[in-house]
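Notebook entry, cofactor series.
This is the third protein in the set we're modelling with a bound small molecule. For this one the ligand is zinc ion. I'm keeping the input format identical across the series so the outputs can be compared line by line later. Sequence and SMILES below, as received.
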Amino acid sequence: MDYMQASTSFPDIDMEFDKNVPRICGVCGDKATGFHFNAMTCEGCKGFFRRSMKRKAVFTCPFNGDCRITKDNRRHCQSCRLKRCVDIGMMKEFILTDAEVQRKREMITKRKEEEAQRESQRPKVSEEQQKMIDTLLEAHRKTYDETYSDFSQFRPPVREKPTKRITRSSSVQTQNYSSDSDTFQSSPDVSESSFFSSALFGGLNGGSSPEASADLTMLPHLADLVSYSIQKVIGFAKMIPGFRDLTAEDQIALLKSSVIEVIMLRSNQSFTMDDMSWTCGSEDFKYKVDDVTQAGHSMDLLEPLVKFQVGLKKLNLHDEEHVLLMAICILSPDRPGVQDKALVETIQERLASTLQAYILCKHPPPGSRLLYPKMIQKLADLRSLNEEHSRQYRFLSFQPEHSMLLTPLVLEVFGNEIS
Ligand SMILES: [Zn+2]
Ligand SMILES: [Zn+2]
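Returned structure with ligand:
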């Protein structure tokens, strides 16, 4: 910023200057640079006028006092040049005093500093954080099939009215069970349903009579679904930046205790408040609360689970927030059996600050209002759901006729040692 610039006291006029009008100096005809001291002039005449005024110079024309000032001769007669300046409207009142120039400079510097300060404080999703988000979105895309096409590979869902219980269904289950297990080992995505939960403790309400057992017709299908979802969650976890830096033991500890929560979280994608169902493609794979209740499922889990799904749905999370929440859920340092809590915490904090930055920068109000604490509250809700699930799972797995309908993976993951 030079002194010349600072002495241009009417920047607004400059800005209003019509760019189509030729910029010609009103004094000498040279190329003008804008309005200076109230008239369109070149830099040379601007400086000449300011210096003359500051010096309070008095010039005398060596000729007739009516020299025609041009670009080339403007130095020859200061008197006529100055007269011309005044004639075209240049005013000394428009010249800033040294103090004014100083003040103006300081003001401009201060404004620039404030701008830089605001810029540096404006929350930003850093390049590294954006990379993290992209990685998680990709990980989710690879482990969650929105077409749910793999559901047809599970043991089929068997829905029966309680009044129509027939023994055939249980023989079908048993028969299919022998061929299950690894059929979906290598298949692509799907996921879903917290209903596996229902499946897992369907026995709770039913007691142990044969009729009650018929309530578990959905168990094989949902057990397969859960087993499949567990594999997908494991696949997702492996792609979370930092997860593979953990020891194998810690990776397993984190997954064993969080997988049910992550399945509940990801199932929200298929959950619809239209009819409070998890809709995974065709009618066959549309899981309603009724299905679960009729399967003898305990409302101790189902009721808070549906409430959780509705609450989560209402947050209208962006995909970015959804995947970050799942990753944060998995990387919880307070899970039982975790050895290197500090490392887990570091990774989780990185995820959490990325989520906060994302919400600040990318989630418009009013949806962003208190969104982060609301999401963290959802993680707390999941802990309760997890506990209830474990309780009911233990009950179920103590009954051999039910546990045999599960899959080896489900048995291993939800086995006693995690309780
Ligand atoms: Zn000029
Ligand atoms: Zn002259």
